[in-house]
UniProtKB/TrEMBL annotation:
Name assigned to this protein: APA family basic amino acid/polyamine antiporter
Swiss-Prot/TrEMBL keywords: Cell membrane, Membrane, Transmembrane, Transmembrane helix
PANTHER family attached to this UniProt entry: AMINO ACID TRANSPORTER-RELATED, MEMBRANE PROTEIN
One Gene Ontology MF term: transmembrane transporter activity
Origin: domain of life: Bacteria
Membrane-crossing residue ranges in chain numbering: 20-40, 47-67, 79-100, 120-140, 167-190, 215-234, 240-262
Amino acid sequence: MAAMATTAGLYLFPDSPLGARLAGVVAVVVLTGVALRGITRTAQATVAILAPVLLILAVAIVAGLALGEPGRSPGVDPAAVDLAGILGAAGVLFFAFAGYARVATMGEEVVDPERTIPRAVLGALGFIVVLYGLLTWALVRALGSHGLAAAGAPVRAGLEATLGSGWGWLAVLGAVLASAGAMLNLLAGISRTALAMAREGDLPGRLATVGERTGTPWVGQVAVAVVVILLVLATDVLTIVGFSSFGVLVYYAVANLSALTLRPEQRAVRVPRAANVLGLVLCLVIAFTLPAASVGAMVGVFLIGVGGRWFLQTRGPGR
């Protein structure tokens, strides 16, 4: 979430680090206010924010495919392929796929969660894979592979290359709105994860407080917002993405490990256990190919978390 806040700020104030940070803080405060109004309002706001984003991406895709030049990308030289670099890039790229799993945290607030959530997760993942694939294809046609690799803002560069320099603002608008939508989604999901952990005694019991009127875990949402604001003010976007990618890959590894313990009749989606083994191995391999600073920092965070959990457990649940 901090990465999204910082990204939005950087798009709005690319030449002012302080302005970008302050804009990110304002975005966090405003979106926290929206999330505190309840899950229905949050969902409505998310749709209102992301609908224009999809339209902007559709413009970029159509422009790239229709006006880009086919064959601009040279073939790949097998001798130049760096496996470690590919795995490291995959770890950072994984950050862009992490949001769909937040759907799984909404079990208390949807009808028939055992049926609805698996369908929503698979639908979201399938949609985003197709969207990313089309966008990548369009940008390669518009910029070429080398141009795409060198672009600091690929969608903006693609729009300017195909439609003209006056279209760059559309990408800026899309990036800011997409960041806002992602922040809102993450705020809702992380606070509900904190709620579940607090109920189990893994986090302070105060985080399990739920608003009587809205049903939202408002203490958790405010706590998440405070932590995000501190990260926005203290770190840079690449550092945050590295932290997030490592954390996401580790908890996906844990999810695969947990899935191995399920009996066939307990699985919402019938997949072979080998898929969970493969997922577990790949998550761990990719996680530890991320920059050493990100890995080391997050391992430290995990150790602090384990120590904090032990402390809370020794005091007794709910305290």
